[in-house]
Amino acid sequence: xxxxxxxxxxxxxxxxxxxxxxxxxxxxxxxxxxxxxxxxxxxxxxxxxxxxxxxxxxxxxxxxxxxxxxxxxxxxxxxxxxxxxxxxxxxxxxxxxxxxxxxxxxxxxxxxxxxxxxxxxxxxxxxxxxxxxxxxxxxxxxxxxxxxxxxxxxxxxxxxxxxxxxxxxxxxxxxxxxxxxxxxxxxxxxx
Length: 191
Fold this sequence. Notes:
Its EC number is 3.5.1.19. Keywords: Hydrolase, Metal-binding, Pyridine nucleotide biosynthesis. InterPro entries: Isochorismatase-like_dom (IPR000868), Isochorismatase-like_sf (IPR036380), Isochorismatase_Nicotinamidase (IPR052347). It comes from Nocardioides oleivorans. By secondary structure, the chain is of the alpha/beta class. It has a 6-stranded parallel β-sheet with strand order 3-2-1-4-5-6. The chain has helices spanning 25-40, 124-130, 143-156, 173-185; strands at residues 2-8, 51-57, 100-104, 133-141, 160-169, 189-190. It has a single domain (2-190), classed as Isochorismatase-like (Rossmann fold), CATH 3.40.50.
């Protein structure tokens, strides 16, 4: 059974200095970048990954997902707008040895990487299955939003799922704790 690493939304707008910054985002980008550099040279990185993929918020006009008066539950400041620097991967991820990138939320809110598609239209679940993946590690930003949604969908899709909390950043302590409890209850391993 193959194992995949899913790197969730490690984009400039979600790191310090971005329009929807999460404290610790740049550190997480750096730590994931270190892991990816070791993986790309096949150095010892702990679990052996057969594939490494990333997800990106990829908003053109996501409707009321963006708001000038966001409630930070269902609506948010403008972020990850296609064509802006904020939509790009954080530079701490360079080089980016991703086998594929899944873009989500072009015209709607999209939290889970499993809502994303490649530029050729492949969905994440199908892409992983086509490569024999049965085990998935999830990391990225934010623990209590897109990491949570991606991990829950991964488990629903039947993948053995683990969240690497040392490689995640959460928005708030209370919502992160609630997300970790929800993921644990869904059978997801929290590492």
